[in-house]
Write a structure and sequence with these properties.
mainly alpha; about 100 residues; 4 helices; about 75% helix; about 0% strand
């Protein structure tokens, strides 16, 4: 199967990325989860709701930023492909043939 078929059949899922369990990202994520769990246990009532709202807002900000970064990276990749395919043959091959 080619890339487009793999994407169509759902075999390519860029939103499901893997990461190294020993990476800085994994360590920070683990610490975040530990702190979130501790605060959930300690807080009650109004303060707990504010904390949950904060975490949810952070998740929305992160998701929106991830989507925008993905779109930007995709556009940059397409632009690189376009730039590599659209060229003036006479200008590029002139240097090779003039020797």
């Amino acid at each position: 199967m080619n890339f487009i078929e793999e994407l169509y059949y759902g075999n390519i899922q860029p939103n499901q990325k893997m990461y190294n369990k020993n990476s800085q990202y994994a360590k920070a994520l683990k610490e975040f989860c530990i702190c979130e769990n501790k605060l959930n246990e300690l807080l009650e009532g109004k303060e707990k709701k504010i904390f949950i709202d904060l975490v949810n807002a952070h998740d929305e900000i992160t998701a929106a930023g991830n989507i925008e970064n993905f779109k930007l990276g995709f556009r940059l990749g397409v632009q690189m492909i376009c730039d590599s395919l659209v060229f003036n043959e006479n200008k590029i091959f002139r240097d090779i043939t003039e020797e």
